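Progress report, Aim 2. The chain analyzed during this reporting quarter is listed below.
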Amino acid sequence: MAMVFLLIALGSHGDVHPFIGIGRALLARGHRVRVAANEIFGDTIRSAGLEFVQVGTREDFAAIMNDAQVWHQRNGPRRIMQFVGDSLRQVYDTVRENASLETRLVGSSLAMGALCAAEAHDYWMATIHLAPLCIRSSQRMPVLPGGINTNYIPRFMRKGFWNGADKWFIDPMICPALNAFRAEISLPPVSKPYATWWHAPKLTIGLWPEWFFPRQDDYPQQVRLGGFVQYDESDHLSLDADLENWIEAGDAPIAFTPGSAMVFGQDFFRTAVDACVRLNCRGILLTRHAHQIPSNLPDNVRHVPFAPFGLLLPKCAALVHHGGIGTTAQGLRAGVPMLIMPMSHDQFDNAEICRQLGVADWLRVNRFTSRRVASRLEKLLTSPNVMNACQRVSAMAKNDEALDRICELLEQNARA
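Predicted structure tokens for the chain:
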């Protein structure tokens, strides 16, 4: 039976791309699909054959990208939650204008306004979380923003740690705005939203595979793991012919990216160029924001505004990036060693998971120097253990039928 899905995807390219991939898969199975996202993604969503619903303007998106506090290792989550609080009414109204009781809502982690709409008006809804940090567990504790590894907390103290985190840090970030809005729409207040509330009660899907991070025994019972969605527009885009010729004309280059939304990457790219000079290797600097790129690049380094990772990374020797889960998943699939420079949010946790898988190493921002980057890359590129781990993980990533699994979870639960 065909259904109507409204996918609400808030965030950067790495947050929106998986929803486009899921939307295309649902469309191919005969469902009607609309994707609600910021105006900046309208053309991309339409090019994928999906209906676009606007939530937020280009100016809203630019305001977030140009806020340096978003990328601060500890202040970043607080700033993002402020933007989420400001968007609650807008997201709620978008759902009300585009959904009926027959509509199946599928919202990203930040789509809290959609959760409120589902609760207030009895819509069916699933939540999709992109990274393990989004689902709390005391079984395997996370590496928090700033690189704080909470796994060292004794097990008998972990419940107390989470209670304190809720009381002193997490609830103050979002509860005042969230509960003020809930009062407006006649819903009761919530506390400890990170513990339970922001997981849709009927179905919550983690977009990573078991081999990356297993489902923990203390996850909420409605949580299922779907796997990585590797959508990157490579279904209708190709590598620039000039870039492809340049890659094929020499040794495999190292790809560098601080993330699609990063506009403060000058130091990152300067270090990347210097590391390439130290290693006497070729490099590709990936960013849509050309002002970040050093002038007078050496002949062995090129700037590329955008290239689908699924086509580019298999041609590269390594990937240096920020630890965003979308970029991480593409690197794992390509089977390339990764050096990660986490800045905030889930990036530290993702980096540590990759390090434990044996495919990556990571450096804090204040230790991300050309000497250290060159040294870590040399170790990664010459280690047989790293290469074997990369091949093993790549094989698992390529054999993962994530989209079929996710669509089946959505269809089965939405019909129940």
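The mean pLDDT is 94. The first helix runs from residue 13 to 28. These observations will guide the mutagenesis work planned for the next reporting period.
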